[in-house]
Amino acid sequence: MTQPSLKSIRILMAEDNDMDVFLVREAFKQGRLSVHLDVVENGLDALAYLRREGEHQAAQRPDLVMLDINMPRMDGLSALRTIRADPALRSIPVVMLTTSDAETDVLKSYESFANAYIVKPISMENFFLVVKTFEDFWFSVVRLPRTEERGGG
Asked: Could you give the CA distance from residue 132 to residue 55 in angstroms, rounded to a whole number?
């Protein structure tokens, strides 16, 4: 029972750990939806992608953004705050996907209007289970605005 408006899901993932990117890609491949995962390595590149700046001029607006907290150049919390402060970007759901289970990071994320906070599991089996649950929730249960209603194509 997927949303009819979403033929293919586009996710922007800001993550500097290649193994975590690999695991997320593999987990989505095993899913039942067509997920296009674009990856950047830090918060500054995520903002450039979302604003279609520099090398990201042809970027398509994602249906959802996944941010790691601990990244070089600009961390995920700073990127989240910048996204939420920008009227053109603030309607995009943002999920924090991070190794940090520190209560201060959880609180700061929700205070900065993250839509969800997920701690990355350590085992591959649990990692795949979390990504499957994520996919089921965000793209089968939750109603997302269509891309054209969010000001992008």
From this structure: 31
Q: Are 20 and 26 in contact (CB under 8 A)?
A: no
Beta bridge partners of 94: 65
Q: How many CA atoms lie within 13 A of 85 on its CB side?
A: 8
Residue 42, both tokens: 């830090």
8 A C-beta contact, residue 142 and residue 6: no
Task: Give the whole-angstrom CA distance, residue 21 versus residue 29.
Answer: 12
Residues pairing with 95 in the sheet = 66, 116
Nearest residue to 118 via CA among 13, 16, 7: 13
Q: Is there a contact between 127 and 28 (Cβ–Cβ < 8 Å)? A: no
> Which tokens is 91 given?
């309607």
Taking only the tens place, the pLDDT of each residue in 43-52 is 999 999 999 9
- Residue at token pair 């950047």: 40
In this predicted model, what pLDDT tens digit does every residue of 55-101 receive, in sequence order?
A: 999 999 999 999 999 999 999 999 999 999 999 999 999 999 988 88
Q: Which of 75, 87, 17, 9 is nearest to 46 (CA)?
A: 75
